[in-house]
Amino acid sequence: MILSQHTVQNYRNIERAEFCPGPGLTVICGRNGQGKTNLLESVWLLSGAKSFRGSKDQQLVRRGEPFSVLESAAQRDDGQAERYRIVIGGEGCEAAGVRTGRSAQLDGVDFGRATNLAGHFYAVVFAPTHLSLVKGSPDGRRRFVDAALMQLYPGYIAVYRRYIRALAQKNALLRDARRFEGAEQLLDSFDLALAEAGGEMIRRRKEYLEGLFAIAQKTYASLSAGSEECSFSYRPCAQDSEELLEKIHAARASELRAGCSTVGPHREDLIIKIGGEDARAFGSQGQQRSAALSLKLAEARQIARITGSEPVMLLDDVLSELDGARRDFLLGKLEGRQVLLTSCDAASFHHTPGGIWEMEEGRLHQVQ
Questions:
Q1: 78-83 mean pLDDT
Q2: pLDDT tens digit sequence for 158-197
Q3: What is the 3-state secondary structure (H, E, C) of 157-219?
Q4: Edge-to-edge, what's the strand order for the sheet holding 230-234?
Q5: Cβ-contact 13, 76 below 8 angstroms
Q6: Are residues 62 and 15 in contact, defined by beta-carbon separation less than 8 angstroms?
Q7: How far is C-alpha 128 from the chain's CA centre?
Q8: Interval 235-259: pLDDT, tens
Q9: Above 90 in pLDDT, residue 129?
């Protein structure tokens, strides 16, 4: 997949910016706080996903403006060209005739919510926060898996939302269960909804992670020159919806005491070991970063394998966080793909064949 044109208007600190990245490496340079990450984030939104920085939609609109607009053109690997338009409604957008949140058009046709773009534009984002994928909390690893699945299987978004909605309702009831008559019946209803949606989430996670881990393990072995072994595994809380429901029912008493749901995909984790030891507790910073790098490269390979389309790689100032060997390894693995990379220092890229753009105070211009 190749992003050929991207225009941003009233997005965060960017009043207007337009650029046409090449099919290989494109570097966006500039000092910190100038808008480089904002530009990369706006490209990521074409995938239908939320901000990779966890921002709410209204925070994406330039201060003082009612809405922002993203317009892009891309060509898929099968030769099909597509045009995307995302409008993000902020404060006061209704007066301008714009809906709140993110709405999208595909090839000029109203597409409803921007999440409906999932499955059309494929991208992998790698930011400094992702280097904490191994040593960070289980929640970050679950988000990593779920974000990938939402791109690959648009139906996963609906399943995930059903699960999260039922989970929020059940937790609210568990906190005040003693005050409500018929709480047990309501809990049975929520448990059934959680088991049905949760079982589907588990099935998708198992299928996806089996292939991802095989690639990540080989990538780590290559990165370490075979000097150490890194293993990745996923232990689902249940094998299917039926078993999940049984486990949720068995936990009823403990959940009532805790005041929250304690069983389900929202409590799962990925297990990463280096040399047979828990990478989170015993891995060095270099080993942890190698494992995270292996997972992100495996994510790109999985997208290409499943969809037949190479994703656009978005590297947000991640090279400055890697040592020379890992930086060279990453760039070597990205050859043949379109890469949009942000950096505070463009000097090391002046001899690359790709284009170099500079971002200053939200304004973008090409320098090479």
A1: 89
A2: 999 999 999 999 999 998 877 777 788 899 999 999 999 9
A3: HHHHHHHHHHHHHHHHHHHCHHHCCCHHHHHHHHHHHHHHHHHHHHHHHHHHHHHHHHHHHHH
A4: 230-234, 270-274, 277-278
A5: no
A6: yes
A7: 13
A8: 999 999 999 999 999 999 999 999 9
A9: no
- Supply the Cα-derived Rg of the chain in whole angstroms: 22
Domains of the chain: 130-308 (1.20.1050.90)
> SS in 3 state form for the chain?
CEEEEEEEEEECCEEEEEECCCCCEEEEECCCCCCHHHHHHHHHHHHCCCCCCCCCHHHHECCCCCEEEEEEEEECCCCCEEEEEEEEECCCHHHHCCCCEEEEEECCEEEEEHHHHCCCCCEEEECHHHHHCCCCCHHHHHHHHHHHHHHHCHHHHHHHHHHHHHHHHHHHHHHCHHHCCCHHHHHHHHHHHHHHHHHHHHHHHHHHHHHHHHHHHHHHHHHCCCCCCEEEEECCCCCCHHHHHHHHHHCHHHHHHHCCCCCCHHHCCEEEEECCEEHHHHCCHHHHHHHHHHHHHHHHHHHHHHHCCCCEEEEECCHHHCCHHHHHHHHHHCCCCCEEEEECCCHHHCCCCCEEEEEECCEEEECC
pLDDT for res 274:
94
pLDDT in tens, 16-31: 999 999 999 999 999 9
Average pLDDT over residues 298-326: 91
- pLDDT score of 68 more than 90: yes
